[in-house]
Amino acid sequence: MLADVKPPSVPEGASGMTVLVEWPPGHPGAAPHRHSGPAFGYVIEGAVRFELEGEPERVVQAGETFWEPGGDVIHYQDGNALSDAPSKFVVFMLCAPGQEMFTFVDEDELGKRAHLRAPRPSAG
């Protein structure tokens, strides 16, 4: 058993998508975004920097899993945590009917929701 998570119910008309993501060394990943439904992932190789709104940043190592509820939650980071090696993960996403699977969050919304982001490590 790698993960046991109870997702929200899947509405009729939802669709699923499985994606293989490969980041070269040090790649920052996708810009802040959200998914219309839950996403479940498994890191195949390397390490991925993972951060969801309201949760502290963490590093998910090869052989570990991650998940996110989707919907309104912002996914801040999914980049390669390694500067000297590639990282690779597979993710299965459920898409709410009539909605995009993946949407970027603009700077205005990020600013308005800054109070919902977990504290960032201080520089230095």
TrEMBL record:
Domain Cupin type-2: 20-76
One Pfam family hit: Cupin_2
CDD domains assigned to the protein according to its UniProt record, in alphabetical order: cupin_BLR7677-like
InterPro entries listed in its UniProt record: Cupin_2 (IPR013096), RmlC-like_jellyroll (IPR014710), RmlC_Cupin_sf (IPR011051)
SUPFAM superfamilies attached to this UniProt entry: RmlC-like cupins
Protein name as it appears in the record: Cupin domain-containing protein
